[in-house]
Amino acid sequence: MLVLGVVVLIPFIWMISSSFKIQADLFKYPIDWIPKNPIFSNYEEVWGGKYKFALFYWNSAKITFITVVGSIITSSLAGFAFAKLNFKGRDFIFLMYLATMIIPAQVLLVPRFILFDRVGLVNTHLAVILPGIFTVFGTFLMRQFFSTIPNELLEAAKVDGAGFWRVYWQICLPLTKPAIVTLLILTFTWHWNEYENPLIFLRSSDLFTLPIGLSSFVDEYGANYSLIMAASVSALLPLIIVVAIFQRFFVEGIASSGLKG
């Protein structure tokens, strides 16, 4: 596993190293993994030049944050309902909802575009945010975790006078921290790197997200890979920070919710 881990990390190490080199030293062999004369002008040009990298960064951060918060709220509410509330057709509705995962996302792009165009959402960030707030996988993940909470705990809370909302908010939700963190990491990673939906629904360059911005960066600067590497490292940092902070809860959430039920 250590050897495989090193093999996986090599491209990332090369990317970070290349971001501090001039173009002439980029493909020199043998590779200088630690640049002898590191430069920071690549980052200065990426962030402070004519390129709208800071704007793309803000757009991605805004869309990802709203989508993550929204998906946690909707998934936790739906997961609690499917796991702990008894209503007619509950299991059948959940099965049908889960079955929508087999539908390729690309199949829904055309009808979604037509719908959003008619309601005036095309070329707005809402066209990217709204589909991401409702996630079948998030509902399944939260439902599996809620199912592990003993019903006796909920019944004791009801005896003390707690209603469904209070049971959800004060009893169940605090116990689902690992599952929430798992959903947070997965949703954050997916929407931070999302390329397809922003490419289709966003037309104005001022609305572009990082993946679209990096694509246009390549087109604009051509073969200047030093700048491309600096931009890629900057885009990767939030993912590394989020995973590093929540990694322990992520593993716990996968172990306790993804493999049970």
Automatic annotation (TrEMBL):
Membrane topology per record: Multi-pass membrane protein
Record-linked Pfam families: BPD_transp_1 (PF00528)
Gene3D superfamilies with a match to the protein in the record: MetI-like (1.10.3720.10)
InterPro entries (UniProt xref): MetI-like, MetI-like_sf
Annotated localization: Cell membrane
Ranges annotated as spanning the membrane: 63-82, 94-114, 126-146, 167-192, 225-246
Signal peptide (from-to): none
SUPFAM superfamilies per the UniProt record, alphabetical: MetI-like (SSF161098)
Family assignment from sequence similarity: Belongs to the binding-protein-dependent transport system permease family.
Name of the featured protein: Carbohydrate ABC transporter permease
Species of origin: Paenibacillus whitsoniae
